[in-house]
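so my prof wants the structure for this chain in the tokens format not the other one, which i didnt know existed until like an hour ago. anyway here's the sequence
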Amino acid sequence: MPLETLFSVANLVALGGWLVLVAAPILPERARVVPRLAVPALLALGYCALLLTSWSGAEGSFSSLEGVAALFGSREVLLAAGCTSWRSIFLWEVGKWTMRDGPALPIGP
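here's what i got, hopefully its the right format
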């Protein structure tokens, strides 16, 4: 699958998770599972698959700043580490925080 397609799919998956999170007040059960667990897990699996398939061909390493810069020179690693992993982490953390602390916060009418 072309990298641009994978990038678009990751965006749409993350957007779906954010939309369910926004709809949490009217879909509380789905908001407990979809943005907190299902979407981050799906993005994390995509991250692992991209990293495993592109790691051997990428130049660089995590042992120095130059090595990391070289790793991000690979479009596959950039998509995996720079996009997919961050979407997964942010959605998981914000979803967890929203569902745990959100109802107790004095927000809204």
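also thought this was worth mentioning. Residues 3-104 form one domain.
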